[in-house]
Every structure is written in C-alpha cells, then in structure tokens.
Amino acid sequence: MQAGRRYTFFQTANWTRKYILLFLIWDTIPVSLYFFFGIEWVVIPWQPLSLIGIAVAFYLGFKNNSSYDRLWEARKIWGGIVNASRSFTVMARDFINNDEAVQQLSNDQLMEIRKKIVHRHVAWLHALAIEMRKVKKWEHDNRKEKRLRKMLGVEYSETQFDRVRNMLSEADFDYVMSKGNRSSHLLSVQSKDLMQLRRKGIIEHFRHLQMQEMITEFYTLQGKSERIKNFPFPRQYATVNYFFAVIFILLLPFGMLDIFIEKGTQFWLWMSIPFSVIASWVFWMMEMIGEYSENPFEGLYNDVPITNIATGIEIDIRQMLDEEDLPDPVVPLGKMELLI
Predict the structure, then answer these.
(1) pLDDT in the model for residue 132
(2) Do 167 and 120 form a contact (C-beta atoms < 8 A)?
(3) pLDDT at residue 69 in the model
(4) What pLDDT score was predicted for residue 168?
(5) Domains in the chain: boundaries
(6) Segments in the chain below pLDDT 50
(7) pLDDT of res. 205
(8) What is the largest CA-CA distance in the chain?
(9) How does DSSP classify residue 338?
(10) 3-class DSSP state for residue 333?
(11) How far apart are CA 28 and CA 260, in angstroms?
(12) Which of 50, 76, 150, 298 has its Cβ near the most Cβ atoms within 10 Å?
C-alpha cells in the first residue's frame, strides 16, 4: 500500500513507461502512412470508434468497481481481525485465573499461560499473513514483481515461517509445520489448549464459551480472507475487459486522424499522435488499476498491508500483558513509501 499522499506523476508514468513507448510507436504509424504515402484509407470515422470507447469505458468502470470491492472487503476483514484480536487478548488476560481452578497456580504460572495463549495468537496472525502472500497462477509474478517482493521481504517461502518460531513451543511449531494450512491448525491447537484449561478450572465454563466463540470468529475471518485469495476476479470478465481495451487502443489513432485532419494543417495532423497516446494511456491505466486491485494480498504496490497490520496487532496485544520486548513498527519502504 502506498503510504504517502499520492504517487507522483513520474512514479505513475514510470510504472507504465513500456506501454507509453508502445503507444507512441503505434500511434505514429497511421499518421506517417497518411502524411508520407498518401494512404487515405487509414482514416476511420470517429463516430463508430466513439461507440466502442463508450462501451469500453463502462466495462472498465464495472471492473474497477468490482476490484475495489474486493480490495475494500479484504481491508474490512483484517480490520475485523484487529478488533477480535484485542477482545481475545483481554479475555485471555482476565479470564485465566484461579477462581475455579482445581489446583491453584501462582501469579507467574498464570501469566505464563496467558502469554502462551497470546503468543500463539500472534503466531497465527503472522502465519496467516505469510500464507496470503503465496502467489497464485492468476496473480502478477513477472521478474520485476519478484524483485519487488524480495526487496519488501514478502516473497513467499517456507523459511518465512521461522518468524513465528519464537512465539510457539517447539512441539507446537513442529506440529503446525507438518500441516498444509498452518494458520488453521494454529487455531486448532489454540482451541484444544483452551479446553484443557477449562477442564482444570483455570477458565470458567461460560468464559471458555466466550473465548471459543472468538476462535470461531478467527476461523470465519480467515475463511473470508482465503476466499478472496483463492478465488480470482472471474476470468471471463477480466479477459473480455482486456481484449476490449486493446481493440479500442489499436483503433484509436486511426479515429484521431479523422478529427485532426479537419483542422487542415500539418501541425494539427501530427498533434493527433500525443492526443492518441494520452487517450490510450488513460484507458490502459484504468485497466491496470483494476487488474492490480483485484488481488489485494499479492504483496505489491496497491495491496492491503497485512504484514503491517499483523505487526501492529502484535505490539498492541502484547502491551496488554505489559511485555516490553516488542518488534519495531513496520515503516514505509523505498521512494514509493510502500507499506507491506
């Protein structure tokens, strides 16, 4: 996520520099054919082309609205994780006590249990964030984007899970690493541990039910996050939108000639090139913004900063237990001020 006021014009143009160059080359061809070789059939009437442009604009609007909905839903899901994590930590801190304990524990022992529960939840947060970074076939994964992920430290690998090792016991870590969905099994271990505390009376029955409801809520939020990650924006819409935009951009310079020839001078004839480039760039930028917003967990420029959110939650909830050995907050990285 870009954490500054906005991208600069240079950053935006640099992101699409390859396409701007292609537009410039392509949009020069019909003008050159008309001016140097007198080929008049390259001039396409503007009216039918404008109808195509209107249709493409509507379709681009639909795709961008749908992509924004996916992006905003992802942010709401992780906002729900923030709130639920705070509630769960307060419960772990206050509900774990000797009120109905079969065997009384010291304050230090109770605090160790509380920390174990909260630290396991921190491990779940980071494990879920790591799993959301695993690149799917339909997501962007060219050489430039791989370099960016590596630079930001969000490139998916098994070694990324080492960051949760110090939050878990060796037995818990080995257990979850033997599973496919690590975050899901962390919640499973959490639920099992809470039941054992319930049987020992360290958590009272009704309070245990409340904490178990929070585990269910975490499963729900994780499932919603996985739904966005594992089900792409419908390919039929993405495909048709892409082809329509390309067709319009290919035809655009031929229609621009029809408009600028009417000016009657060579100056205006050649001015059709920059106007064609600008119009093509606007339509293509709308296509790219929608395409890069539809997958909000890729670890790229415009994603939901789940690593930052997970780290922020960790700091917040561990402070509730008066811990001091806390991680540093995630800060924007690079000239583009990206939060991960």
Answers:
(1) 96
(2) yes
(3) 96
(4) 96
(5) 9-319
(6) none
(7) 94
(8) 98
(9) B
(10) strand
(11) 14
(12) 298
Q: Could you give the dihedral angle defined by the CA atoms of residues 221, 224, 225 and 230, in that order, rounded to the nearest 10 degrees? A: 150
Q: Could you tell me the two tokens for 138?
A: 């339909």
Q: Which residue has the tokens 């496919």?
A: 180
Write down the pLDDT at residue 335: 77
Return d(Cα 36, Cα 38) in angstroms, integer: 6
CA neighbor of 226 nearest in space, from 215, 218, 234: 218
> What are the backbone angles phi and psi of residue 338, rounded to the nearest 5°?
-95, 130
**DSSP string computed for 175-206:** HHHTSSSHHHHHHHHHHHHHHHHHHTTSS-HH
CB atoms under 10 Å from CB of 15, counted, come to 17
Instruction: Please report the pLDDT score of residue 338 as a whole number.
Output: 81
pLDDT at 221: 98
Q: Which helix or strand (DSSP H or E) is residue 62 part of?
A: helix 46-95
**Long-range contacts from 277-282, C-beta under 8 angstroms, 24+ separation:** 277/20, 277/23, 277/24, 277/27, 279/252, 280/23, 280/27, 280/249, 280/252, 281/16, 281/19, 281/20, 281/23
User: How far, in Å, CA of 283 to CA of 251, rounded?
Assistant: 13
Rounded-to-integer distance, Cα 327 and Cα 166, Å: 12
Helix, strand, coil percentages in the chain from 3-state DSSP, rounded to 5: 75, 0, 25
Residue 38: helix, strand or coil by DSSP?
Answer: coil
Strand spans (E) along the chain: none
Residue-wise pLDDT for 127-153, tens only, equals 999 999 999 999 988 888 888 888 888
Neighbours of 202 (CB within 10 A): 24
CA angle centred on 295, ends 292 and 298, rounded to 5°:
90
pTM across the whole model: 0.92
And the tokens for 131? 């799993």
Q: At a CB cut-off of 8 Å and minimum separation 6, what does 6 contact?
A: none
Q: What is the pLDDT of residue 274?
A: 95
CA 78 to chain centre: 11
Place of tokens 């609007």: 61
Q: Report the C-alpha gap between 253 and 43 in whole angstroms.
A: 9
